[in-house]
């Protein structure tokens, strides 16, 4: 990680998190919640990563725009993020789509979700705006991105990842010159432009942007008055600035928080069941690429008051234990075994049951003798005694949602249908 310059630009910044998306590729996992509210890592929600990065970077004014099925997301933020104090010039505003501009208009795009709340942003009087996507897993020091923005004289600075060129077709992609000035910005190109001197790789947008506040307001007002605009940062605002101003790329490698110096930077879009499953299981590695134990850069979340995890019974075939797994508070592993799995808060495993490569969300109950392999179990599900999942693909596909990589998502509705 680059060394910080001791200039507290973050104190003059406001982080604005775009957390309104459904995340439809997560299928039934987002039937009742927005993607940023989806559980991750044993204790957290996805949105906690962007918010924690802001707090750890020194930003003390935060706004979060919500839209799709926002109740669980708003409830989580009220519980977990209510420690900001106005008397210390701190603020935390939850900004649901509320038809503030027109009784017919919700948020029409990412840029519109900021435009509709210009007056609230003005009341916080930030000099800089850090626009963030609320649905990615990563650790990043935004202060270093702010430093580059000011030092380069950019109108906008765009956070970017270096990815294999043909893997960039699902991103906004930047062409840059030798000074990191963006010369072209295209959304989801079939033939992404390569990096100068490294034609096999491309620069993909992270959905992170830094602006001076007044300049951002000018662009949002101009865009709102432009017929045919999609009111989107990646589709409209950034391409316009690339053509008419100065846009600069900021590489994630320059500001990422690494688990250890020798480990590669970690950023994941957990937008599919397989990606979500693998990112959670990444945490079970002996030396995980994402360090959730780092006290210097913690992931803040709702601190539930609950009992410690408990393992009971010590007989052959009925021994409560876990191997290469994360077991959260209030879990009881009763004569059962969890292998390379995450048990979120309040999971109960009955005797003789087993979970191998499982992501078990809060307050699930796994019945006696159940055998579960490569599963995601939504919160509150009760797995019947003796149920077997992950051993017969055809049976699994008839009962549950089975991904391309053979991961089964199990929800309460799916279990109820089996009972009918």
Automatic annotation (TrEMBL):
Top-level taxonomy: Bacteria, Pseudomonadati, Pseudomonadota, Alphaproteobacteria, Sphingomonadales
Keywords assigned: ATP-binding, Carbohydrate metabolism, Glycogen biosynthesis, Glycogen metabolism, Nucleotide-binding, Nucleotidyltransferase, Transferase
Record-linked NCBIfam families: glgC, PRK00725.1, PRK00844.1
Subunit comment: Homotetramer.
Domain Nucleotidyl transferase: 16-285
Family: Belongs to the bacterial/plant glucose-1-phosphate adenylyltransferase family.
Record: residues binding alpha-D-glucose 1-phosphate: 107, 172, 187-188, 205
Record-annotated Glucose-1-phosphate adenylyltransferase/Bifunctional protein GlmU-like C-terminal hexapeptide domain positions: 307-410
Annotated metabolic or biological route of this protein: Glycan biosynthesis; glycogen biosynthesis
One term of GO molecular function: glucose-1-phosphate adenylyltransferase activity
Annotated site, Could play a key role in the communication between the regulatory and the substrate sites, chain positions: 67, 106
Chemical reaction(s) catalysed: alpha-D-glucose 1-phosphate + ATP + H(+) = ADP-alpha-D-glucose + diphosphate
Pfam families in alphabetical order: Hexapep_GlmU, NTP_transferase
The EC number(s) this enzyme carries: 2.7.7.27
Protein function: Involved in the biosynthesis of ADP-glucose, a building block required for the elongation reactions to produce glycogen. Catalyzes the reaction between ATP and alpha-D-glucose 1-phosphate (G1P) to produce pyrophosphate and ADP-Glc.
Record protein name field: Glucose-1-phosphate adenylyltransferase
Entries under InterPro entries matching the protein: ADP-Glc_PPase, ADP_Glu_pyroP_CS, GlgC_bac, GlmU/GlgC-like_hexapep, NTP_transferase_dom, Nucleotide-diphossugar_trans, Trimer_LpxA-like_sf
Organism annotation: Novosphingobium aquae
